[in-house]
Amino acid sequence: MSTNWSAYNGHQHYDELVTAEGTPRPVALALMNYLQELSSRGLKSRQAAADRASIEAGLQQRLRALNMFIDDVYHDQNCVRDGVVPAQLIQSSKDFLPQAVGASPRHGVWAHVCGTDLVRDRDGTVYVLEDNLRVPSGVSYMLENRSVTKRVFPEVFRTMRIRPVDAYPSQLFDMLASLSPRPGDRPEIVVLTPGIFNSAYFEHAFLAQRMGAELVAGSDLIILDDDCVYTRTIEGLKRVDTVYRRINDAFMDPETFDRQSVLGTPGLFRAWFKGNVAIANAPGSGVADDKVVYSYVPAMIRYYLAEEPLLPNVPTWRCADAESMRYVEEHLAELVVKPANESGGYGLMVGPHASRAEIEQMRLQVRANPRNYIAQPTLSLSTVPTVCDTAIEPRHVDLRPFVLQGSKMSVTAGGLTRVALRKGSLVVNSSQGGGSKDTWIAEDV
Predict the structure, then answer these.
(1) For strand 416-420 and strand 434-437, is the pairing parallel, antiparallel, or unpaired?
(2) pTM, full prediction
(3) What is the rounded distance in angstroms from the CA atom of residue 259 to the CA atom of residue 213?
(4) Which residues of 379-392 are buried (b: 16+ CB within 10 A; e: fewer)?
(5) Which long-range contacts (CB under 8 A, 24 or more apart) does 169-172 make?
(6) Distance from C-alpha of 312 to C-alpha of 387, rounded to nearest angstrom
(7) Tell me: the pLDDT tens digits for 205-242?
(8) Using an 8 Å Cβ cutoff, are 96 and 289 in contact?
């Protein structure tokens, strides 16, 4: 055999491809001949490609299960009846919307855009850290980072086969178009923004411009007596088919939710519930964007899809569970403790990097509201070389690929790599001093 196979010692047991004498079985002869022609580098390249395909399939699997869970929550709640998730988990969720019970979004999809955060531990295992299903952001930085990198390192893109990411706006448009309640017509799509003071306003304007969609505020929309949504234009009112909303549930519709909100549109929820307009992500999808719910996703995949999870969760202790709570209290200094519904790294404690006072403060917070907290081991996140002043130093990173689901699914060929710019920090969120990098998925390595 070639160098690749010289150390293969499969004859100690029955081997599916190789006989006890070390020769290929007849059924495997063509395959083995092909594999023997590959160099070690070529074989590893194909293994890496298979790993990338597994991650893509795992992300799609995860979002399918999450959407089935959300749809179940607002209909029959079979997952509760069958003991997959406890009733209290849903009843105590601040993002469960009783008003959405019975709604049926097109294609049965509630979370149309998902930013799933991935991390790689010391041994190379890729874990899902969390799912962002309410108003996931950061994709504009993914696109802008690629644009900058291509200008700075044009020669690299001439010599390496790096998968492009610039198709995302058209993929987003196609997904939003597939949600239209008037299939067959060219849909009118708007991006609903809370305004210029929102930290992600640049992204709202960026994506609207790239998709050729209108960027609107809540006051630009009106719901008429036909319970349809219209946008005000210089030519008059124009019916809206899909709203890509970048505004939280509570502020979206003062008629249904927060009556003090000046950011939303009165009647928008009613129009959506009656099926006259699509909203991405759908109201109520945040019930699955909960770090306690996250811990049940592997069980959801087995329950709804009858499949084993392709991507593992980080091991998680639910503080509402008495036995888990005892373990967490005994090991607070070793664990990462997270609130269930915060984002941006707020409220998080990394035990090994926390002071004794911070640890004791977290202990009191967890005791006061155990449902609101989970704990996880402190992973040794992978690093990338980072230019820091005059030196190049390692900094910890995670990766947020974006998954779209409408009439079909797609996954970005890369994603947003977030970087903890402070030396030794494991918190990569931009609100906590993190940055971002371009992410390359190479066709050949």
Answers:
(1) antiparallel
(2) 0.88
(3) 28
(4) bebbeeebeeeeee
(5) 169/143, 169/207, 169/210, 169/211, 170/211, 171/404, 171/410, 172/113, 172/207, 172/211, 172/244, 172/404
(6) 32
(7) 999 999 999 999 999 999 999 999 999 988 899 999 99
(8) no
